[in-house]
Amino acid sequence: MDKRRLVILGGCVVAGIAAWAFAPGPIAPLAGLITLCLALWLCEILPPFAPTLLLLAVAPLVLPGRAATLAVKSTLAWTADPVLALFFGGLAAGAAARKHKLDERIARLLIEKSGGSPRRLVALLMAGTALLSMWMSNVAAAAMMVGGARPALEKLSNSYGRREALVGLAMAANLAGMSTPVGSGPNGIAIAALDERVHLTFSTWVLFGLPLSAGLILLTYWFVQRRLPRTPIDLARGTPPVPLGMGAKFTILAMVSAISLWLGEPLFGVPAPIVSLALATFLFVTGGLDADDIRALDWSTLLLIAGGVLLGRLIESTGLLEVAAAHVQTSAISPLSIRLLLCAAAACLAALMSNTGTTALLVPIALRIDPSPAAPVLVAISASLGVPFVISTPPNAMVVGEGVRGRELLGIGLVIMLGGVILVALTGPYVLALFGLR
Fold first, then answer.
1. Cβ(114)–Cβ(235) under 8 Å?
2. Please, what is the end-to-end C-alpha distance for the chain in angstroms?
3. What is the distance between the alpha carbons of residues 197 and 180, in angstroms, rounded to a whole number?
4. Are 254 and 279 in contact (CB under 8 A)?
5. Do 416 and 388 form a contact (C-beta atoms < 8 A)?
6. H helices within 134-245, ranges in order?
7. What is the mean pLDDT of residues 370-386?
8. Where are the alpha helices (DSSP H) in 240-291?
9. Higher model confidence: residue 366 or residue 231?
10. Three-state SS at 222
11. What angle do CA 370, 363, 58 make, to 5 degrees?
């Protein structure tokens, strides 16, 4: 570990010790543990699953008023949330798509459909990236499309156009995750926080998140297309794709069926987590995935979401949020100002740190200040708006590696973050109220 990481780690430990020293006696050890894990998540100096393991190991020993044996059962039960099953299915589908090279087929098809027009090419590639990012991690979606489109993008007649196209792909991957519950880790934490208060269906989330996501992606395209060249691209035909194997066909069938059941949850009555488990089971049974592929699943993301769920439960057990909420509610701050503050805090923290860690920190606070079901959703959506910097998201870092400059991400990223936060805070509660989330 280099000196910089050691200094940051030392700072996290000091923050935990300070919280331990200043918190009330019975909850002091737990407050110190929570602060340490939050600091580790937000600074991102350790693998994202490491603070989850630390919470699981130490929390049973410091939970106030509980014997360690009973506390172990409580903490493990808190992490066994249905949202993990929901994400597991999405991760399995993404792994199957990569294994059978469905990503390359999508990129090839979109490039052929562009007819050589740079603007149409970028529009189709952004749409394809967004479509993938709705159902799998934004990292996987961006990697698939950047790799598949690289030969066509290199034929753009100027470097500005290529870089702008890559900015569009990165933003499409970042923003599409807010469209579905399985698209981004913050969504899962919000759904888990609401589970005991209201059942938030898959389709309800999509009806709220998809129009917002689509609007912001269209805004991004409007920005990037202005600098695209008008000279047509010579799209020489490559080798024809290998015919689809049975594994690829079963993967397509499984994903189409799962998406239909997810969106039709109110109609069919099958909970989305059960559909996800059935999707993963079908893929392994039919050969879409095999025993070796299970190692390639993004277990780190699952552990990170589990840690966020556990952190929220532990913060609730301290009782400190009730004190903070009472102070805010007795002050002269208007509900709109509170929403703006929470949404802005989520976006700004997520722009610099982990968006899932940010959501894990702010969702319990939001629920104490504003107990309506809309509060966690607005925080999670706002965390997905933290996209302006090179370090904000993995897709941003990925396209910088392809030659994009930080200031090119910053220009559109700030517009999306600031405009999105204001839009979500002003309209979010009223739109969600239309779906019964009051």
1. yes
2. 48
3. 20
4. yes
5. yes
6. 138-153, 159-176, 185-194, 202-225
7. 90
8. 246-263, 265-268, 272-286
9. 366
10. helix
11. 135
**343-370 mean pLDDT:** 85
335-352 vs 406-433: helix crossing angle, rounded to 10: 150
Quick one: angle between helices 299-318 and 82-99, nearest 10? 160
Question: Two tokens at 151?
Answer: 């030969």
pLDDT value at position 282?
Answer: 92
Block residue for tokens 């993963």: 280
Cα distance between residue 44 and residue 21, in whole Å: 24
What DSSP element (H or E) covers 130?
helix 118-133
Q: Tell me how far CA of residue 352 lies from CA of 44, 179, 346, 387, 394, in angstroms.
A: 10, 22, 10, 9, 12
Please indicate whether residue 342 or residue 331 has the higher confidence score (pLDDT): 342
- Tens of pLDDT, residue by residue over 128-150, are 899 988 987 787 788 778 877 77
What's the CA gap between 131 and 258, in Å, rounded?
15
Q: How far apart are CA 80 and CA 69, in angstroms?
A: 17
List phi, psi (to 5°) of 281. -60, -45
Q: Of the given ranges (238-242, 248-252, 345-349, 361-365), which has the lowest mean pLDDT? A: 238-242
* pTM for the whole structure: 0.79
Give 232's DSSP letter: P
| Between 281 and 60, the higher pLDDT residue | 281
State the average pLDDT for the chain. 83
* DSSP conformation letters of 67-98: -HHHHHHHHHHHH--HHHHHHHHHHHHHHHHH
What's the pLDDT at 88? 87
Q: Backbone phi, then psi, for 117, in 5-degree steps?
A: -80, 120
Structure tokens at 74: 């409580």
